[in-house]
Amino acid sequence: MEEEHMTHKPNPGWRPGFSIVAGVGWLVFIILWLAFYASNYAWEKNVAIFLLSILAVFILLGGTWALWGIRQIPKEGKDMFKIFGFKWRVQISIVIPFAAMVFLIVWFWYYAVPYTVWQNLAVLIVTLLVMGGILGLIWTRWGMKNSWKFDKQAAYYCKEEKEETDEKED
Description:
By secondary structure, the chain is mostly helical. It folds into two domains: 1-72; 76-170, no CATH class. Helix content is 84%, strand content 0%. Helix 2 packs antiparallel against helix 3 and helix 5 packs antiparallel against helix 6. The longest helix is centred in the last third of the chain and has 53 residues, at 117-169.
């Protein structure tokens, strides 16, 4: 019975190992950068390099796990993508944070120098607020209109999880 249950578990394969290597590699890069190269650059450029390194790791790990996760979506979950407006909202929810990060990298590399730390912090906060506002605008009305469909999905997954728990207990 236990073997039967194990065959239903998705196998992430090489992805956990890749994630560990990427995370440790990122930390090594940051430590080496701070130790040997950061003093050659202004603080604004160091912030840009730090953000760029986060973006690179995000693309590597996000892309790797997103592709795997999409393959794991059951039929009931894939039906969500057929609901009008869901797919483009998901796509925009990926593009907007990416664009915000690129904007911040460009800002800190090229434009931040004549401004104070506090003004640059204000640019960072405003960028995050604008990003959150845009995402909130595109999802709020749609979410209120379609929340019952999410409730249906949640009920399905809760039922499936309960059945798996009951099987384990038997």
